[in-house]
Amino acid sequence: MQIKMQAMGATQTNCYIVTVDGKDFIIDPGIGATKWVLSNVTNPVAILNTHGHFDHVWSNHELQVALHIPLYCPKGDAFMLQNCPLGQSVPPSDVDYLVEGDETLEIAGVEIRYRHFPGHTPGCSIIQINDVWFSGDFLFQQSIGRWDFPFSDGKKMVQSLQKAMEIKEDFTVYPGHGSSTTLKAEQRVLPYWIDQVHSTI
Question: CB–CB of 157/148 below 8 Å?
């Protein structure tokens, strides 16, 4: 598996191109991602969104038109691709496949596993490919996603963090912002974040 990453826009949102068996998966194409993606794919097969916030989905439509490939998004966040809850003028995009909760998909012969961790958004998910997590805005290095946005939910965030604590395997984590980390490293600080969220709900 090959991973290319470029931080996009003022929010420096990480867009990823993940190549497995010669097939390119585009994860979270944010603001201004189209040119970079088109310059770095050879066999694109799908666009995958971790969640629906504008800085992760901005270039969805441009890439759908340019590449003629399907868009996958968690069902709970699909409405955000048409009507941004954060007031940004996002080019609307239509989802080809609504991912429901924890769901394992086969796309072009490659296993793509969505793991649902709501709280930051209703549909917030990580995308697992082999032993790697693309964690969107759920987990960052030494931090977690905000839970005070419209449609965020602190109680669900606590449940999601507890769910992440219970996972025994380790994964390399590539977040939506900032540097990569590992699940085991983040599990050491998750109790702190669980307490922080608890104190606000």
Answer: no
Beta strands 103-107; 110-116: pairing state: antiparallel
**Residue ranges of domains in the chain, CATH in brackets:** 2-198 (3.60.15.10)
Residues 6+ apart with CB under 8 A from 95: 71, 72, 73, 78, 81
Q: At what angle do helices 190-198 and 154-165 cross, to 10 degrees?
A: 160
pTM over 0.85: yes
Q: List, run by run, the mean pLDDT of 10-residue segments along the chain (201 residues).
A: 96 98 98 98 98 98 97 98 93 97 97 98 98 98 97 98 98 98 98 96 89
Please, are residues 144 and 157 in contact by the beta-carbon 8 Å criterion? yes
Strands 110-116 and 125-129, bridge-based pairing: antiparallel
Non-local (6+) Cβ contacts of 61 within 8 A are 91, 92, 93, 94
